[in-house]
Design a protein that fits this description.
Glutaredoxin; five-stranded mixed beta sheet; 10 helices; about 15% strand
């Protein structure tokens, strides 16, 4: 697990918390920006809804996405029993930028983007690199998904997308007391204990 207080190396803590205070003054119950455009796999009729809160620079999130998500998909999503909902919870500026790009990519390519981001995390999110270097790495990834250099620059300064991600992050932190990533919420209950397939399977079986 990746603790929040260990992962705000790139994000300026003061700047970030000022932004949080501004957005916390809003009411989220009726904010359609938070509710729209979720990255989802599986049927809306699935009895089990699994929310995955993750940061795209988090190694544990990458491991979960590459090893655990495929097992959940195979056993529960493909059978229509479960739906996976991927939700941004960026822990640093690099993850924040990657999340913004996720929402600029064509909806049909968003899962491909997620897969690529996690599979190549150690190459684009290089530890110690400046945000400019990381952005150049991200630009190469999205070019293959139809995002031009001009679109890339516009995406990073898109206030609607930025607000949506920050609003969702603040709301999730308040609602589920998220302290690390990935955090898994199954039918509105935060998963306690190990974030592995065995533990998730146990909770799913209790529901179905």
């Amino acid at each position: 697990m990746t603790r929040l207080n260990l992962n705000f190396k790139i994000f300026s803590s003061i700047k970030f918390f000022i932004i949080c205070l501004i957005f916390c003054s809003k009411s989220y119950a009726g904010d359609t920006k938070v509710l729209k455009n979720k990255i989802v796999i599986g049927s809306n009729d699935a009895i089990v809804k699994i929310k995955i809160y993750s940061s795209l620079t988090c190694p544990h999130c990458a491991n979960f996405h590459m090893k655990v998500v495929p097992e959940i998909k195979k056993e529960y999503v493909e059978s229509g029993k479960a739906q996976l909902i991927f939700i941004d919870f960026p822990l640093d500026q690099a993850a924040f930028n990657a999340s913004k790009l996720l929402h600029c990519v064509d909806q049909k390519k968003q899962i491909i983007f997620l897969d690529t981001i996690y599979e190549t995390q150690d190459k684009w999110a290089i530890s110690g690199s400046s945000i400019n270097v990381i952005n150049k790495n991200l630009k190469k990834i999205v070019e293959n998904l139809g995002i031009s250099s001009k679109q890339f620059e516009k995406c990073l300064i898109n206030e609607d997308i930025s607000d949506k991600i920050l609003n969702g992050r603040i709301e999730a932190a308040k609602k589920y007391s998220i302290e690390s990533t990935p955090t898994i919420v199954i039918n509105e209950k935060k998963l306690e204990g190990s974030i592995n397939f065995k533990n998730i399977k146990k909770k799913i079986e209790e529901i179905i």
